[in-house]
Protein 1
Amino acid sequence: MKLYDFNRAPNPRRVRIFLAEKGLEVELVPVNLFRMEQLTPEFRQINPSCTVPVLETDDGEHISESLAICRYIEAVQPEPRLFGADALGEARTLMWNGIVEHEGMTAVAEMLRNLSPGFRDHVFPGPVPYPQIPALVERGAGRTAQFLDRMEARLADSSWLAGDDFTFADIALLVTVDFAKWVEIDGREGRPALAAWHEKISARPSAGA
Amino acid sequence: MKLYDFNRAPNPRRVRIFLAEKGLEVELVPVNLFRMEQLTPEFRQINPSCTVPVLETDDGEHISESLAICRYIEAVQPEPRLFGADALGEARTLMWNGIVEHEGMTAVAEMLRNLSPGFRDHVFPGPVPYPQIPALVERGAGRTAQFLDRMEARLADSSWLAGDDFTFADIALLVTVDFAKWVEIDGREGRPALAAWHEKISARPSAGA
């Protein structure tokens, strides 16, 4: 297996952390999004969506989308279990991961892409240019704060996001909280449960991936 | 089990079709989003994200997020398999479902929510009001067309979205194509492979769910 990766982007980091938790090492193939390398004809053959991460299986098949990649890795290397121990554990993991993706990651990305000069005229990774919309920066800030408050409430009640076990959903949240620093939001400020959780998860060796 | 549902919204339809394919019937509890019933104190207890669908398990636990719900149903009732037959089949299903969610469903929703008077000052289902941003209508139209072209290219090569088998990803695409009619986009026009796929999937009894 090898992984098309960019070490500055949040979604590839989700997969790198997941691999580290599994104790797996795979070849990393860098695709520099800052240099628009996702738009080369070669990479567009690999992934027409022009996103990273992409996993290349040993049979040469290309799988995009972080969740799809991590579920595949979970099947290849089941232990330690990162999608819960049973059907309900998996449902909780996917639920919290979905909330992080739809309410958190999207909101932070909306801010960064509509704010940073690097994304001017090209707010999505694909081949079609779309201009920045400044109103989305303010909207993204509001949604990010709302999301972080929701996480604070959850983590005040639960040691990990999906319950008693560390899961893929925690990885998604870690990556989102760290990604928010790019838009100068420190989610830990004024949120003690989120801060304690962040300290605990950041101490795992995988967090350095 | 029972399902908190709204019969006019695309995501609850994904779960209703999934249940129909499994031959399962569950109690449906309507939450009328047109009347903002997702914001009642009672429903906010059930789902603080204020979204439908939400599955209530027999133990009284509430699971939101369509994918989480459908994976749970797949575990309760494995046949017919709707997430592929093996690890690679599941990865393909989740990859294509992710593409439909991130590139298709989001784009159509962006159009509708920023266009329709029903969403004025409240473009997200949650409790916090956010105003419409008219520039997102045009952006959403461009992204929707780009997404539909991608689906046409895929379905010209593959009988179902994730390969030879009908899966959860096809349900996501059906719901998205039908949802686009709300913003007066008929994805089948000028896209023969998508049109043939749509005719085939719409003939399944579950499509009426």
Protein 2
Amino acid sequence: MGKIICAGLGPGDPDLISVRSDRVIRSARHIAFFRKAGRQGQARRTVDGMLHPAAIEHAMEYPITTELPFDSPDYIRLLSAFYDDWAARLRTLVANGAEVVVLCEGDPFLYGSFMHLYTRLRADVPIEVIPGIPGMVGCWNVLGEPMSWGDDVLTVVMGTLPEAELVAQMKTADALAIMKTGRNLPRVRRALAAAGRLEDAWLVERGTMPGQRIARLSEIEASDCPYFAIVLVHGQGRRPVAGAPE
Amino acid sequence: MGKIICAGLGPGDPDLISVRSDRVIRSARHIAFFRKAGRQGQARRTVDGMLHPAAIEHAMEYPITTELPFDSPDYIRLLSAFYDDWAARLRTLVANGAEVVVLCEGDPFLYGSFMHLYTRLRADVPIEVIPGIPGMVGCWNVLGEPMSWGDDVLTVVMGTLPEAELVAQMKTADALAIMKTGRNLPRVRRALAAAGRLEDAWLVERGTMPGQRIARLSEIEASDCPYFAIVLVHGQGRRPVAGAPE
């Protein structure tokens, strides 16, 4: 019996992959990765030039839905069947002795798609998961400002949440990372403004990757909804000199 | 003129250092790291066996205080003078052409001590900061459970916060990471119990490192206050099948 190794890729710059993931990816004979049909996909792009010449690539292409909203029962059913299908295919590969490396952007256990395979396979397939630098960590690194200090509370929220809850979370956090922005960005802006945090918010698009863009959220066009972007608000440190050295 | 490179080390396992930090550390001729006086220190231990034979080591030893509480004005003054002193020493090294690699556990911009040097030096010294896998990411990886799904809110809090605020944060978050535990652990336990989260809380001590320990927080002795530990509560996913594929 083989096994599955999920290799966290980090924020996108291949130089920020961990030594262990790097080694596993370079020696893999089976590489699997999610992507939208018709695109190369960010995970596969990150490892370009790293793969073994004999590596067999398994592109796990999300079902295309131009008609179904992402949160409709039909779409969720379609997505669930898609994960079932790939879980079955990977199980067969492993049963035949293959070691399959599944690429995962950021850290696999932090809002990662791999978890949908993990929950389906963990009972009967050996799985190793290698952590990665989360995308948000890469994004606050490129801003070059400390993200959280002292006793700061750091809260990570999704832009898909209802506006009232976004406002509540933004008011009680010191440092903020907001993911799943895209077409939710207008709501995120309104919520940040209502919480008094808009002027301190930064947008990082494609952080650590080619085409990286940094902007103050308050200064970008309201119609501008970049695709691969995170919004960050820095903590100011509840105590200017952090307390006890660890 | 030389420069300073702050190399994020990740959670403690040297195999989880990024490819870039690994390369920078192995080729460094000047290595600086924080530690308590009389100890090797976790950062230095992580890079054991990796340093160049000609590397000059600069141990930045925290001032010892057996009498002063960590949050007293006197202690804060002492710590501030300590950072001033090391900022001046590093500035002199760089002015003389040295490239100094400063080691930093986890990610440097996430509650990292390096930030106290960074704010003192950034105006007149070239500084590059390499991100790392945060300690908490390494800790949830060793638990082998997805940390956050779908629209989960993930909140990072310090065990040093007042109990009422801990309870409030624990009630409004889905996934929780609690740092600076140690002697604050009894308060953290009470707050988790009050928020109805104690039964779901895990303690990870020395995650990814030799001597790693994992336990349900509710099952350890109340008097047990491990030193290098993080408490985690997993999110359950506000939507079982995460929404839009990125």
